[in-house]
Every structure is written in C-alpha cells, then in structure tokens.
Please model this.
Amino acid sequence: MQAGGSDGAPKSAAVSAPAPTTTGAPRGNLVNDFRQFLLRGNVVDLAVGVVIGAAFGQVVSTIVSGLVTPIIAAIGGEPDFSNLTFTINDSQFKYGLVINAIISFLIVATAVFFFVVRPVNALMDRFRTEPDVAEPTHPCPECLSEIPRRATRCAFCTAVVQGV
Model:
C-alpha cells in the first residue's frame, strides 16, 4: 500500500496544507483586556446613563402615582388607575396599569425632550460648522469642498478664498 492521498496518489509537497499561522486571535492577559474594555469612556458613560435613567424612571413613576393620578382623579373621579380592570372568561385585564405606564412614558419623554434634546440641539446649532442648506455655496479652489459664498477661508483645507 502506498502512502498518499485517498486516491492512492503519492503525497506531493505542493498539495500539502500550509502550516497554521499564529496571527489570528489577539493575545494578552484576559483580565487586562477586560479592564481596558470596561474603562473605555463609552462603556462607563453608558453604565452611568442606564443607572441614572432607572432612577429617573422610578422618580417619575412615583410622581405619576402620587401626584398626577390624584390630580386626574380629582377631575375625572377615579382615585387610582391601577385598580381599573375588566374581566373576560375569568381573565382579568388591568388596563389601569397601562394608563399609568403611558402617563409615566409621556412624562419621561417630555422631560427628556425639554431637558436633554432641546439643549443639545441648541448647543449643536451654536457650534455647527457646515453652512445652512439654503445658503448658496461654491467649490473651494484648493480642495473642491462646497463652502458658503461669503466665506473668506475654507473650513476644510483652511485655504484663503475670495468671498462673494
């Protein structure tokens, strides 16, 4: 019997598989890599945001159940929405809890909009570098980027240009 492939042909050096390389997976101390991952700014920021968001959600839920619901109850006559239910075939549907959750969501969404989204949008508008969409532009003679006609210096390559 000959040594070789499954068809009985002798093994050739040109057909043999290459030796495995060691340049695939990163090497290093697992603990150091994990610590570096945890201490990245975006991971820490996300963790802080989640914790603060959970605490804020709890505060809003308490405000809804302690203040908003009684105010609505004074107007509408129902003192506690969480007790509102209906029953079909011995299955109880607690739609009052859904009403409380919707009120909580609307309060959180309103707070996020007025205390986060609007201030961030105002800040981004203040530091915006690109021109308004309606403002006429022309290409920079150096880098060919679109710049406002009134610009005297290109924002991309800092070349001095003639303003129109």
In short: Residues 131-164 form one domain. The mean pLDDT is 78.
